[in-house]
Specification:
This protein is mostly beta strands. The chain has no helices and eleven strands.
Length: 128
């Protein structure tokens, strides 16, 4: 039974920065594909970034077009934690941000249905 716990959300002005954390337990962290999604009220869940293992201790991140150049995902294996560094935030980034993980099968990519475990979500609000 995998469990993901998120933290770091809050209120920030446009142009500011925020870092989200997602601590994982109960899964094979080194082989699991991890991802961030976001969801604004009345809208569908949107892909933000996914990171998968492509070799021993080698990981590759794919970003959604709306966040390329502004957001960065990183991984800290010793703490079984992933992060989402968000820079140059815009009001359009306002949403609940969710951390997700698969079971290590290597096929998860850009769809919500690819993932097996989800965090509780953390609110990010960007004022203009």
């Amino acid at each position: 039974q995998g469990r993901l716990v998120e933290s770091g959300g809050g209120l920030v002005q446009a142009g500011g920065s925020l870092r989200l954390s997602c601590a994982a337990s109960g899964l094979s962290f080194s082989s699991s594909t991890m991802a961030w999604f976001r969801q604004a009220p009345g809208k569908e869940r949107e892909f933000v970034v996914t990171m998968r293992r492509i070799g021993n201790n080698i990981y590759y991140a794919d970003y959604g077009d709306s966040v390329k150049g502004r957001f960065a995902m990183s991984r800290e294996g010793a703490k079984s934690t992933v992060y989402l560094q968000m820079n140059n935030l815009k009001p359009e980034d306002t949403a609940v941000y969710y951390c997700a993980a698969d079971r290590g099968q290597g096929t998860a990519r850009y769809r919500s249905s690819d993932y097996d475990y989800w965090g509780q979500g953390t609110q990010v609000t960007v004022s203009s």
